[in-house]
Amino acid sequence: MKAEYFRHLLKFKRPGGTSRGVLNEKETFILEISENGNKGTGECAVFRGLSFDDRPDYEQKLRWLCENIQQNSEFLKDELKEFPSIWFGYEQAILNLRHGKNLYFPSEFTEGKTPIIINGLIWMGDISFMEEQIQDKLDKGFHCIKLKIGVNWKSEHEILKKLRQKFSKEMLELRVDANGGFTKDEAKIVLQQLAELQIHSIEQPIKSGNWNDMAELCAETPTPIALDEELIGIIEVSEKIKLLDRVKPQYIILKPSLIGGFSGSDEWISLAEERNINWWITSALESNIGLNAIAQYTFTKKNPMPQGLGTGSLFVNNFESDLALKGELLYFKN
C-alpha cells in the first residue's frame, strides 16, 4: 500500500461572506492511496482559521501518514486524533479503495434512485445580493433556506421579516447561522425576535467555548439552538458527553472534516440520540471529492431533515462533480 497527496487551492466564484470575514480561496489536500493497481481518493479539507488542525505541522503530519500508510487503522486513528481532517481524508481514501470508481458508501443514493433533500445556503452581503440569492433558491423550489447572519442584524432581521410575510413556516423553513456573531445579551434579544418569525433554528449564536453562557441560552431559548463550532476540538468521548450534558442544545451540526470524519460523526450522533438531541450534517467548503463522500455517508444515516450539502458550485476550479442538484434534491450521477 502506498500513499501520496497534493495541495489544491479552491478559488471562489464570488467572495463568500460570513461573520468571521470574507473568503476568497480555500486550501485543501487530496490524498491518494494505491494498492494492487487500485486507487482510493480522499480529501483532507483543512479549514484555515477554523479547523482544530490548522497548525504549522499540518503538511508534516500528512507526509507522516503517507510514510506510515501500512500501519493498522487503529494506530493511525490514535496518531491522527488531533488532525481530524487528515483522518477524514484517510477514511475516505480507504473506503474508495475498497469500493472503487467514485464510491464510498454504495446505496440507493449512489444507484441514482433516491436523492437527499438539502437546504439552500444564502451568503452574507448587501441586502440586494442576499435577496437575489434568496429569490434564486425560491425559484428553484427550495423549501428550506439557511441564512448567514451576525454582521448587520438590523438589515438581516428585515430580510427575514419580509420572507416570513411572503411565506409561512409551512411553506418555507428558515434556518440562520450566526457563526458566534452575537454576545450573550444580544443573543437573548435575537432569539426572541427569531421566535416571533417562527425561525427553525439558529446555529452558534455566541462564540464557542462559553459553555455556561450557551447552556443558559439553550435552557431559556424560544428558538432552537444548534451547536456548530462548539464541537470543534472536542476529541475525547468523555468531553463530548460533558459538552452535551452541560449545554443541552436542541440540535448539533456535524461537519465531518472538522470533527474527525465518519467515525467522529458517528460518535456524536450516538451520544446526541441518547440524549434526544437532533442533528443534521453539513459540508464545510470541501471540494467535490469530499462533498461526494459526505453526501454518500449522509444518505446512509436516513435523517429526514434537509441537510447542508450544497456548496460544490461555489468554486471556479473544482474537481468534476459526481453530484447533480435538481431544485432542492441532491442526486448522484451514475
Which labels suit this protein?
334 residues; alpha/beta; Enolase-like, domain 1; TIM Barrel; 2 domains; seven-stranded parallel sheet; three-stranded antiparallel sheet; 10 helices; 36% helix; globular; O-succinylbenzoate synthase activity; metal-binding; EC 4.2.1.113
Structure description:
It is a single chain. The chain is α/β, with parallel strands linked by helices and 334 residues long. Helices cover 36% and strands 23% of the residues. The chain has 10 helices and 13 strands. Helix 3 crosses helix 9. The model has no long low-confidence stretch (mean pLDDT 94).
In short:
By secondary structure, the protein is of the alpha/beta class. Helix content is 36%, strand content 23%.
Reconstruct the topology from this structure:
Layout: E1 2-18, E2 21-35, E3 38-44, H1 58-67, H2 73-79, H3 84-99, E4 116-117, E5 120-122, H4 127-139, E6 144-148, H5 153-166, E7 173-177, H6 184-196, E8 201-203, H7 211-220, E9 225-227, H8 237-247, E10 251-254, H9 261-274, E11 278-281, H10 288-300, E12 323-326, E13 329-332
Parallel strand pairs: 5-6, 6-7, 7-8, 8-9, 9-10, 10-11
Antiparallel strand pairs: 1-2, 2-3, 4-13, 12-13
Number of domains: 2
Q: Which range best describes the helical content: under 10%, 10-25%, 25-40%, 40-55%, 55-70% or over 70%?
A: 25-40%
Uncertain parts:
none
CATH hierarchy: architecture of the largest domain: Alpha-Beta Barrel
Oligomer: single chain
CATH homologous superfamily identity of the largest domain: Enolase-like C-terminal domain
Q: Could you name the CATH class of the largest domain? A: Alpha Beta
CATH-defined topology of the largest domain? TIM Barrel
* N-to-C order of helices and strands: EEEHHHEEHEHEHEHEHEHEHEE
Give a short account of the largest sheet: 7 strands, parallel
How much of the sequence lies in strands comes to 15-25%
Overall pLDDT, averaged? Answer: 94
Pfam families: MR_MLE_C (PF13378)
Keywords: Metal-binding
GO molecular function, one term: metal ion binding
Enzyme class: lyase
